[in-house]
Each structure stands twice: as C-alpha cells, then as structure tokens.
Amino acid sequence: MNKSEVYNYLDEKHIKYEVTEHEAVYNMTELGRVDVPYLGRDAKNLLVRDDKKQNYYLITVKGNKRVDLKQFKKDHGTRHLSFASADDLEKYMHLTPGAVSPLGLLNNDPATVQFFLDQDFLDDKKKQKGAGIIGIHPCDNTATVWVKTTDLVKLIEEHGNPTNIIKI
What pTM value is reported for the model? Predict the structure, then answer.
C-alpha cells in the first residue's frame, strides 16, 4: 500500500485518524524538527532479522527509546539479531528506508514478520494529551498518521501478523 491506499484502507475499516504532512524525514532527529500535535506519541520502528535470515521482527517503540537488540534476543529467545537490509525491507514490507511503519505489515503477504509493540503506547495516563494514540508513517515518510494504538493492533492482528505487546 502506498500513502493514499493506506488512507483509503483506514477509511474502509472505519478507523479514525489524523494526518500531519511534513517534509521527508529519515530518522527521529529529523522528525523532532517537525511540528506534531502529539508530542511523545511518535513511533520508532526497527525491522530486524535473525542471523539465518529466517525470522523478521518489527519492533515499535516510542521515539525517545533505545532498543537493546542483545536484551531483546535474550528476552524473546531469538537467534542473533541485526538490522534488516533495504532489500529485506522492500521484499517483506514493500517499504524504503525511512518509511518503516507497522502499516507496512499490511503489505507482508504471507504475514510472516512478527510485530513487537512497546506496552508504553497502551499504558498512558488518561489526562495526557494524545493518550492512547500512536504516530506512524503511512508507508511514506512525508506524513505521520495518528491513530488509536488499539486500532493499529487490531488491524495488524486481523492481517495475521504475530503481534506481541511487550515492555521495552
């Protein structure tokens, strides 16, 4: 799915969302220069693979967090992990570097990439602006889509990708 197809899909599924259009961003530092409506709700997305290139994992955390791949390996019983290549990203999610998004899992057919979402996106204080919302790319790094985290999880689960809510 491209950006417009993502919007159409969200509309078809009756999922409410907001969009922030912006210049292309390739990392969290660049996104930090964009004026966003929900500070601290933006997601960092890492596609990683095991050393045999048999298992792929999309790890999604809040933008200010770091992911320790050695700890992730230990916690989830995986083989040695490293970042997937641009070719892997294209093959499994039809995305380019800088546009990694959980919505790219909707392109993963068959649904083989495992999704790991940080629990922090669900453990918000209700009074915080944007509580329960996650900001992700619509398979294109020139916009951020703001959706309810629970709606995102439901979409990914309906698609069939193994989905795990974890504490990172």
Answer: 0.93
